[in-house]
Structures are given as structure tokens and as C-alpha cells.
């Protein structure tokens, strides 16, 4: 059983900080939501490392929005629904495609500088998009540019306070309301932040897997603390593996952007053969789940650990201009993007499921909101369309700020935690973490089966005694969060007996709309339930 709180505390004895809005996390979702909320409220931003540690900063591909006269919200809607494989909320997608362009405009007003050609915004095309609608900055450094501009504004804002190196252990709730957060400082001391509204912007869960494009901070903290607080967790079986992460000795699993294939790169197996025609009519521009599984199939067939990405038929000048970050990174390891085939393999990339929200970003726990990758707004369905994630964060960050303006001031009740934990010796967490990552990769990865999933669950359950330990270090809290969400993912994957989007069951290889066009909801207090699409 997952406990309600990870740490013992007495709220009445803790230092108490008052603010209007507490934003947990520092990517595009956290920064943009904080800036919008600060128009009317005092905002406290909390991040467990630095404000530069987020998935946004590493986003290369860009941001999707209808800008061109040749494009339309209807085209963007169709592409998103198609990629989402029948599980998108049409209402949420409509909101995204119609409000996304205003979000981009707002980013530009806040100082983000997108690439231009001939005095107009430069638009590119990526996998599963029917139109050129992807905006970039500095070629392939879009995320870094967005973080730069938003961080600059947030730091200057008189109503935004920022805390680096503070870890949110849990949310404090009373009577179904979120009252704020229990926070631990670097020195181990704890405090209580009381707020009118709490916004989770904690990012994804890539670190649950041995190979990921995500930074070290992506340990699923937000989903875990929301689950312990009683929030609905939805569709966590859908985890997107990016098809093309660098796979080279001594190099990290660096993401080779979707945009490289969007600009004409080929995928080749170990024999040098292009192979995507065997798997999908859109070839290299097929949806990510299709491409990722095709790559794994080719790796298995040729007994290799990677395939090649080949863009050597494009000019060197064009490659350097369009992909400067990727070009320079590969060069560090002796790989020339303009002359060499680049070895790539799939890696865990994006978490489609998360904390279920309504169309204002509010969760099933009153006054608790979620934005960005930690959330499940209904936009992504079973498989996120490339470059929709940054747009989603803008659109729903704005909606969250608007909803918070309508909240009245909460009554304060000093909830207490009196659970007492024993203090057994804890095996080095770094070993536990590595073991968990290997279990998830082997049993809950790109290809799943009942046998493998049950084996994975059994192995994960052996780590449950950590919840009876007295936890005090950030890496211990992180591991507890990783274990919580790993079990949620594995259980949801067992329940969904079909293959859809990013969830693939070898024992149920077909999509089954008559039975499984529905969401799987997990709740710590009420258990597991299923919601058919017309009920969601």
C-alpha cells in the first residue's frame, strides 16, 4: 500500500509560508503559468534543482501552432486526433488548436525569438503533421530559447519569488481541498507553503527507464504526489519512446529531433536498407510509436542495437544551419551529421498520461492544478503529435491562471500526519533506481505482454518496503515516487488488453475500439475505474 505521506510531520510545528499561488516546476509550463498568474497574484515557484533543469530546455523540435494561411485549426485538429489513436478529448484538442496561436504570440511578446525566413516566421513540418506549422528557435534549440525568455521575465517580475533546490515531498490536503505543499530544504529542514492554489508543473517520467532523452530530474514526482493526495491519474500506460536517440559508446541518449526526418532524413538498418516502407505509407514521417516499433523490429531482425539515420544527401550548409545543436553534439563524438550515418535507437521520451484535469487545468482535488507533461488534459490521447507539448503548456497555463482568479480564499485547517515509520537500513538508492529502470525497460517498455508485465510488477513489489522506512534524502523521495508511478504504469498496462498508440501488447496486437476506446483511471482512495470516451 502506498502511504498518504512520505514523511512524518506536524504541520503546527513547521515554519509556514503564505502565498497566493505555488507553482511546482520550472519548464515552459511552470514559467508561463507563473507569469500569467502573477498578473493578479503573488506566486512562489519551487524547483528541486535549478530553474534551467527541465525537459523544455532540451526540446529541439519546436512548437506547433497554426500560423500559415495555408494551414487551419481544422487541419491541426485532424492531425492531433489521428495521432492520438481514438483517445483524445475532442474538446481539449479544439481548445489547443484554436488558442495555440495566441499562446505563440504571447511567447513572442515575452521575448522569445523564433527563426524567420524572408521576414516571416519560418515554419517546418514534422512527423504526422499534414502542414508546415512548427516554429523553431536557433534551428534546433527551441526549448532553450523559450526557457531563456520566460526565465528572464519571471526573474524580473515583482510578484514572482523563486526557490531553487527545494523539494516538494507531498501536497497537504484537508476535506478534499489542496492547502499547499510540504517542502524540504537542502539542509533537510521542512516547511509548509500554504496557498490559495497549487500548480503541478513537474514534467515527465523518463527516468523510470534505463534509456531516456529526459534529464535526471524527470522522476515522475508530480504524478506520485498527486496520486498520494487523492487525485485521479489517467492513461499512464501510454509512454512515448522517441524513435531516434543517439546510440553511441560513451554518448548519452541525446535526442535526434523528429525534424531531421521532417527535413528528409532516411532510416536504414544495419544492411544499409531503407525499411519504413514495410511498416507505414508515411515512411519516416509515420507517427512516433510506429517508427519506434519498426526500428526495434529491424534491430531484432538484424541482431543489432541500433539503426542508422541518414541525412547525408542534404547539403552540409543546410544541415549546419538547420540543426546546429545536433550537429555540434554529434561532432563531439566523432560523428559528422553531414557525412556519416548516425546510429540511433528508441528511448523513453514523453509521458502522455498523468494527473487528470478538466479544461481549466484543475484536477479532481480542489485547488490543485496540473500543467504540461505531468497533466492529462485529453490533448494527446494514446500518442502525442510531435511539437504539441509546448503548445499545450501555453494554452492550459493561461486557462489555469484564469481559473485561479475565480477562486475565493480558502479556509485553513492544520492537517497533521502522525504515521510512524520504522527505520530499516536502506540499500543504496542508486542501486535501487538502476534496478527499477532495467525492470521497466525490459518488462514495461515498447513491447509488452501479460507475462512480462506480471514479472515486472512482482520485481517492483519487492521494493515496497521502502515506504516503511524513514525517508529523509531527496534521492529517497525520488525513488519512492518512481516506484509509485512504475507500479501504476504496469498495472494500467496489464488492464488494457489491446494495442493502441504508444501502448503495444504482443499478446493483444490489435486495436479494439468496441471494448477499449476508454480511459483507465487510477485513484489511491477509490481504486481503478474505466471511463468510456463519451463519459470522460
From TrEMBL:
**MF terms per GO, please?**
L-aspartate oxidase activity
User: What EC number(s) would the UniProt record show?
Assistant: 1.4.3.16
Top-level taxon in the UniProt lineage? Bacteria
Location relative to the cell? Cytoplasm
Q: In which pathway does it act?
A: Cofactor biosynthesis; NAD(+) biosynthesis; iminoaspartate from L-aspartate (oxidase route): step 1/1
Write down the InterPro entries for this protein, in alphabetical order: FAD-dep_OxRdtase_2_FAD-bd, FAD/NAD-bd_sf, Fum_R/Succ_DH_flav-like_C_sf, Fum_Rdtase/Succ_DH_flav-like_C, NadB, Succ_DH/fumarate_Rdtase_cat_sf
Domain Fumarate reductase/succinate dehydrogenase flavoprotein-like C-terminal, residue spans: 433-523
Reaction(s) catalysed (UniProt annotation): L-aspartate + O2 = iminosuccinate + H2O2
What is any Pfam family matched here? FAD_binding_2
**Cofactor dependence:** FAD
- Its main subcellular localisation, reduced to a broad class, is cytoplasm
Keywords assigned by UniProt? FAD, Flavoprotein, Oxidoreductase, Pyridine nucleotide biosynthesis
Residue intervals of the FAD-dependent oxidoreductase 2 FAD-binding domain: 20-390
Q: Which family does it belong to?
A: Belongs to the FAD-dependent oxidoreductase 2 family. NadB subfamily.
Q: What does this protein do?
A: Catalyzes the oxidation of L-aspartate to iminoaspartate.
Name this polypeptide is given: L-aspartate oxidase
> Which lineage ranks, top first, belong to the organism behind this chain?
Bacteria, Bacillati, Bacillota, Bacilli, Bacillales
Amino acid at each position: 500500500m502506498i502511504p498518504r505521506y512520505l514523511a512524518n510531520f506536524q504541520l503546527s510545528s513547521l515554519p509556514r509560508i503564505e502565498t497566493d499561488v505555488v507553482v511546482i516546476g520550472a519548464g515552459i509550463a511552470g514559467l508561463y503559468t507563473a507569469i500569467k498568474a502573477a498578473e493578479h497574484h503573488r506566486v512562489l515557484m519551487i524547483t528541486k534543482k535549478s530553474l534551467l533543469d527541465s525537459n523544455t530546455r532540451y526540446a529541439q523540435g519546436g512548437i506547433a501552432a497554426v500560423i500559415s494561411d495555408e494551414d487551419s485549426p481544422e487541419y491541426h485538429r485532424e492531425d492531433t486526433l489521428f495521432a492520438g489513436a481514438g483517445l483524445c478529448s475532442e474538446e481539449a484538442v479544439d481548445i489547443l488548436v484554436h488558442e495555440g496561436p495566441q499562446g505563440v504570440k504571447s511567447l513572442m511578446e515575452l521575448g522569445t525569438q523564433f527563426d524567420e525566413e524572408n521576414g516571416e516566421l519560418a515554419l517546418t513540418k514534422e512527423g504526422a503533421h499534414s502542414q508546415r506549422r512548427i516554429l523553431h528557435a536557433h534551428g534546433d534549440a527551441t526549448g532553450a530559447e523559450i526557457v531563456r525568455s520566460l526565465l528572464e521575465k519571471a526573474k524580473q517580475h515583482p510578484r514572482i519569488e523563486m526557490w531553487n533546490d527545494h523539494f516538494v515531498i507531498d501536497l497537504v490536503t484537508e476535506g478534499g481541498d489542496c492547502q499547499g505543499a510540504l517542502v524540504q530544504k537542502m539542509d533537510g529542514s521542512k516547511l509548509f507553503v500554504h496557498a490559495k492554489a497549487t500548480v503541478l508543473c513537474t514534467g515527465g517520467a523518463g527516468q523510470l527507464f534505463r534509456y531516456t532523452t529526459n534529464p535526471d530530474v524527470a522522476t515522475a514526482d508530480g504524478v506520485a504526489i498527486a496520486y498520494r493526495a487523492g487525485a485521479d491519474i489517467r492513461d499512464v500506460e501510454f509512454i512515448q519512446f522517441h524513435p531516434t536517440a543517439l546510440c553511441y559508446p560513451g554518448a548519452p541518449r541525446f535526442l535526434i529531433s523528429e525534424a531531421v526526418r521532417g527535413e528528409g532524413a532516411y532510416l536504414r538498418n544495419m544492411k544499409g536498407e531503407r525499411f519504413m516502407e514495410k511498416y507505414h505509407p508515411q515512411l519516416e514521417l509515420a507517427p512516433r510509436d510506429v517508427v519506434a516499433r519498426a526500428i526495434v523490429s529491424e534491430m531484432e531482425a538484424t541482431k543489432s542495437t541500433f539503426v542508422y539515420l541518414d541525412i547525408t544527401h542534404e547539403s552540409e550548409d543546410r544541415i549546419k544551419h538547420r540543426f546546429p545543436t545536433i550537429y555540434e553534439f554529434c561532432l563531439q563524438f566523432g560523428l559528422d551529421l553531414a557525412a556519416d550515418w548516425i546510429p540511433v535507437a528508441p528511448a523513453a521520451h514523453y509521458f502522455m498520461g498523468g494527473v487528470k484535469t478538466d479544461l481549466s487545468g484543475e484536477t479532481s482535488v480542489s485547488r490543485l492544478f496540473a500543467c504540461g507533461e505531468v497533466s492529462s488534459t485529453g490533448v494527446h490521447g494514446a500518442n502525442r503529435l510531435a511539437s504539441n507539448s509546448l503548445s499545450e503548456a501555453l494554452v492550459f497555463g493561461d486557462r489555469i491562471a484564469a481559473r485561479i482568479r475565480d477562486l475565493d480564499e480558502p479556509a485553513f485547517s492544520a492537517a497533521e500526519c502522525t504515521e510512524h515509520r520504522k527505520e530499516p537500513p536502506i540499500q543504496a538508492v542508486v542501486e535501487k533506481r538502476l534496478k527499477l529502470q532495467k525492470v521497466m525497460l525490459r518488462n514495461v517498455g515498447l513491447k509488452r505482454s501479460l507475462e512480462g508485465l506480471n514479472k515486472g510488477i512482482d520485481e517492483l513489489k519487492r521494493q515496497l518496503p521502502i515506504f516503511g522506512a524513514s525517508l529523509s534524502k531527496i534521492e529517497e523521495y525520488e525513488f519512492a515516487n518512481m516506484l509509485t508511478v512504475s507500479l501504476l504504469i504496469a498495472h494500467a498496462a496489464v488492464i488494457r488488453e489491446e494495442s493502441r498508440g504508444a501502448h503495444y501488447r504482443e499478446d493483444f496486437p490489435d486495436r479494439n475500439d468496441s471494448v477499449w476506446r476508454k480511459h483507465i483511471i487510477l485513484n489511491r482512495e477509490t481504486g481503478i475505474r474505466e471511463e468510456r470516451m463519451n463519459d470522460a
